[in-house]
């Protein structure tokens, strides 16, 4: 639903600005959380390639944390594919949220510009009224 910002009162614009600030904060937080999880998967995937001195009975299988405290035994190649799928999924989610965040930022900027315009008009009216009152 399109709303003409110039038809809104200053208090309505302030409320809309506050709402948009909350939404952008939420979306920014969501992206940050997705990036943290994505980084963990990248690090886990990279750790499969690292050489660590030690003795292992089975070097072909690893335990993979699949979430909520559950671990699954997988071979190294399946583990790499699992992490790649998770990283790709998170990348797509970030790419979906990013445009919404940019749109909210643009909307907030438009609201601020209309608010400033209305404040300038109000200030101009007050100045001209005080000028005619003195005359």
From TrEMBL:
Which example biological process does GO assign this protein?
A: protein folding
**What Gene3D superfamilies does its record include?**
1.10.287.370
* Record InterPro entries: PFD_alpha_archaea, Prefoldin, Prefoldin_subunit_alpha
Q: Which domain of life is it from?
A: Eukaryota
Q: Which SUPFAM superfamilies match?
A: Prefoldin
Q: Which spans are transmembrane here?
A: none
What's a Pfam family this protein contains? Prefoldin
Q: GO molecular function: any one?
A: unfolded protein binding
- Provide a GO CC annotation, any one: prefoldin complex
Family to which this protein belongs: Belongs to the prefoldin subunit alpha family.
Q: What is the protein name for this chain?
A: Prefoldin 5
């Amino acid at each position: 639903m399109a709303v003409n910002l110039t038809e809104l009162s200053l208090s309505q614009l302030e409320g809309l600005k506050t709402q948009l600030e909350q939404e952008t904060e939420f979306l920014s937080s969501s992206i940050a959380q997705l990036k943290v999880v994505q980084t963990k998967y990248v690090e886990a995937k990279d750790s499969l390639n690292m050489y660590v001195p030690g003795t292992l009975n089975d070097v072909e299988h690893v335990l993979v944390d699949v979430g909520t405290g559950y671990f699954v035994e997988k071979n190294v190649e399946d583990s790499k594919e699992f992490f790649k799928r998770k990283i790709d999924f998170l990348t797509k989610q970030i790419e979906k949220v990013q445009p919404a965040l940019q749109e909210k930022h643009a909307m907030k900027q438009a609201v601020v510009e209309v608010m400033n315009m209305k404040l300038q008009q109000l200030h101009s009216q007050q100045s001209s009224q005080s000028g005619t009152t003195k005359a």
